Amino acid sequence: MNKFLESIKRYQKNKKALLATNFYNAETLHAILMAAKRENSEVILQTSPATLYYLGVDMAVAMVRAAANEHNVTAWLHLDHATDSALILQCIKAGYDSVMVDASELEFSENVQLTKEIVSAAHEKYIAVEAELGYIPKLGQSGVIESGLTTPKQAENFVSQTGIDLLAVAIGTAHGFYKEKPKLDFDRLKEIRNVTNIPLVLHGGSGLSHDEWQMAIQNGICKINFATEIKDTFMKTIRNSMMESEEIDLRKVFLPGIETTAKLVESKIQICSMN
Ligand SMILES: [Zn+2]
User: Fold this and answer.
1) Cα–Cα dist 44/38, whole Å
2) Of the listed 58, 80, 97, 232, which one is catalytic?
3) Quick one: which of 132, 234, 254, 255 is 20 to 30 A from 24 by CA?
4) How far is the CA of 75 from the centre of ligand 1 (A)?
5) Distance between CA atoms of 29 and 69, rounded to whole angstroms?
6) Helices 210-218 and 255-273 meet at what angle, rounded to 10?
């Protein structure tokens, strides 16, 4: 079996979650690995397609493997929210541990079809596949709608028809910062948990409370995606420190951002590891 899946299933069994953080450059990658090291924890490092257009697939893979090795941390590399099959296949070939195919905005049958194709290509190389069912609003899209939430019945059918390894569920979260307090449907999550054994993923971890993270984990989530607050914390810190300084040594300029981001990620790893 894929070692990443073996690991996340251990978290699932112990009612804990693996934190899945997006990184964007060497600095945010360092920050996340520093946090994982301090907490003596594994971590999932995610790249969105936008990050791959920025860094390049081969460079992203090489950076993650080298940095994880230098920090002596177990880090799993995951492709986040990909819609382009060619990019997904490129990541499978390049050595990702796991890929997400996001066909959630297509009709159910089309979502099943595209996801199945990716599962078949990924499983040939023992790579895990995450897919999304329901509607988890993306940045710039309108908010959560009741009809967009994942139904247990559809989840059961989707998992059995596609053979996916991880399922991203829509239970009231959204991407980016929340404009109003989200209402998470934990009863729905419990019902989904009851109809399938595979690891369940919560997207939109930024802006949720400590208790909401814990409730999600206790009711069946074992991977939490966390991105927006990382960008926000890193950029706010360096913007402030640059206003007060004329420093041009960029190796010094980014250090405060790395430290505040590491502290933020540490606090989230702690919530994921509680029981
Ligand atoms: Zn997401």
Assistant:
1) 15
2) 80
3) 132
4) 19
5) 12
6) 40
Q: Please, which residues have CB within 8 angstroms of residue 35's CB and are 6 or more apart in sequence?
A: 43, 261, 262, 263, 264, 265, 266, 269
| Each residue's pLDDT expressed in tens, for the chain with a length of 275 residues | 799 999 999 999 999 999 999 999 999 999 999 999 999 999 999 999 999 999 999 999 999 999 999 999 999 999 999 999 999 999 999 999 999 999 999 999 999 999 999 999 999 999 999 999 998 998 877 778 888 999 999 999 999 999 999 999 999 999 999 988 999 999 999 999 999 999 999 999 999 999 999 999 999 999 999 999 999 999 999 999 999 889 999 899 999 999 999 999 999 999 999 97
The helix, strand and coil proportions of the chain, stated in percent and rounded to the nearest 5, come to: 55, 15, 30
Angle made by CA atoms 54, 127, 57, in degrees to the nearest 5 = 15
Which CATH number covers residue 223? 3.20.20.70
Q: Within 13 Å and on the Cβ side, how many CA atoms surround 68? A: 17
Could you tell me the distance, in angstroms and rounded to a whole number, from the CA of residue 168 to the centre of ligand 1? 8
CB 198 within 8 A of CB 167: yes
Query: Catalytic site residue 80?
Result: yes
CA–centroid distance, 204 to ligand 1, in Å, is 6
Show the tokens assigned to 270. Answer: 């702690």
Let me know: does 64 contact 45? Beta carbons within 8 Å: yes
234 C-alpha to ligand 1 centroid (Å): 19
| 102 CA from centroid of ligand 1 (Å) | 9
Phi, psi dihedral angles at 120 (to 5 degrees): -65, -45
Instruction: Determine the structural domain holding residue 24 and report its residue range.
Output: 3-273
Q: Count structural domains, the chain.
A: 1
